[in-house]
Specification:
single chain; 158 residues; alpha+beta; Alpha-D-Glucose-1,6-Bisphosphate, Chain A, domain 4; 7-stranded antiparallel beta sheet; 7 strands; 23% helix; globular
């Protein structure tokens, strides 16, 4: 079966989070912490459950701001390919449609390095739109990831 790719995009973001590397790592691997910051501004995470390990799966459902056009659930699945404790996460990410169908196929690599001001986090993510509706999602990748990292920084820099 041939899969149609409607668009592709890659984004790399680099941030210094003013927090120790172990705390930043925990924010990416602890479900309770992930629930606090994952997703764009004003999005919540009613469901975050799973296991961060090679072969592990994380299920996240984001929910958009109440009363907005995004006031719906946005489920996704993360499948971990590589986990290097305190240093690196590599995962496939698959946003899902209302019937559980894959909207996109993505690959994300996150690295963590000690930095004089805290932790240097680099996120490189790429995705392929598998349905026409996902093309718009690709257009917002940099903004969505940037807002997520802003939320992470606010959470950890308190």
């Amino acid at each position: 079966m041939t899969m149609t790719i409607y668009a592709e995009r890659s984004v790399t973001l680099v941030r210094v989070i003013k927090a120790p590397r172990d705390l930043v790592w925990n924010a990416w691997t602890d479900v309770a912490m992930l629930k606090e910051w994952w997703g764009p501004e004003q999005f919540t995470n009613p469901r975050v459950e799973g296991d961060v390990r090679v072969g592990g799966v994380m299920h996240i459902t984001m929910h958009g701001p109440k009363g907005s056009p995004f006031d719906i659930d946005f489920p996704m699945v993360k499948r971990y390919r590589e986990v290097v404790l305190g240093k690196k996460l590599v995962f496939d990410n698959e946003p899902l449609g209302p019937n559980g169908e894959k909207l996109m196929e993505g690959l994300t690599v996150v690295t963590f390095e000690s930095h004089p001001e805290g932790t240097l986090v680099e996120v490189t993510t790429s995705a392929k739109a598998l349905v026409p509706e996902a093309v718009g999602m690709l257009g917002g990748m940099d903004q969505g990831w940037s807002q997520s990292l802003d939320k992470l920084a606010r959470l950890l820099e308190k």
